[in-house]
Amino acid sequence: VINQARAELGIPQIPTATAIAAAETPPAPPGGAQPAATASPAPSQSATETSSALTVRISLDPELRGQVGADDHLFIFVRAHNGPRMPLAAVRKQVRDLPLTLTLDDSNAMSPQFAMSAFPQVTVGARISRSGNAIPQSGDLEGETGPVQPGQAEPVDVVIDSPHE
After folding, report:
1. Integer CA distances (angstroms), 82 to 24, 42, 111, 147, 165, in order
2. What is the pTM for the complete model shown?
3. Signed CA dihedral, 128, 132, 134, 140: sign only
4. Buried b (16+ CB within 10 A) or exposed e, 91-129
5. The predicted structure's pLDDT at residue 50
6. Can you spell out the DSSP letters for 119-134?
C-alpha cells in the first residue's frame, strides 16, 4: 500500500524484503560447494533509532466509534513539522487494534534519506481509511499532534477526532 501511494505521488518505491535479501545473498562458489554456515549476531537497534524513538498512543474519540468498522485501515505516520509532506515513518494497522501504543523510530522510515532523526521537530498523525488507500480521502477520520521532538521521553497522544476535509 505504501509503495502504491508512493507511485501515485511519483516518489521512488521502497525495495521489498525479498528484493533486499536477493541483493544481499552472495553468489554460490564455483563447483557448487556450499560455504560453511556462520553464526551472526542478532541485529540490534542503532543508537540513532533509539535516540529518535517516539512512543505513540493512538485512540479514537468514543463519539466516532459508530462511524468505523473493526476492519477499517488505520495509518499511523510521522511527518517533518517543517519539511517534506511525505511521511518519514508509517505503520499500518486496523481499527480493531485501538487503543494502541507503539514505538516509531528510524527503522519505520519510508526512505533512508528522510529519517525521523534528521528533523528537529515532527508531527504524528493517525487516519482511519475505509478504502484502505494510504492517500487521504474525504470521509476518512483523522487526528494529529502539534510539533514534537523525536526521542522525547513522554508518550505522544493522538486522538482520532475529526473527519478529513
Report:
1. 35, 36, 17, 9, 22
2. 0.69
3. negative
4. bebbbeebebeeebbbbbbbbeebbbbbbeebbbbbbbb
5. 53
6. -S-EEEEEEEESS--S
Q: For position 111, what pLDDT does the model report? A: 84
Identity at 144, one-letter amino acid code: E
95 in helix, strand or coil? Answer: helix
d(CA 42, CA 47): 15
**Residue 74's beta-bridge partner residues?**
93, 128
| End-to-end Cα, the chain, rounded Å | 22
* Cβ atoms within 10 Å of 25's Cβ, excluding its own: 8
Q: Give the Cα separation of 130 and 53 in Å (integer).
A: 29
Q: How confident is the model at residue 16, as a pLDDT? A: 54
- Return the C-alpha cell found at 163: 473527519
Q: What percent of the chain has pLDDT over 70?
A: 72
Strands, E assignment, the chain? 54-60, 73-80, 89-94, 100-104, 122-129, 141-144, 156-160, 162-163
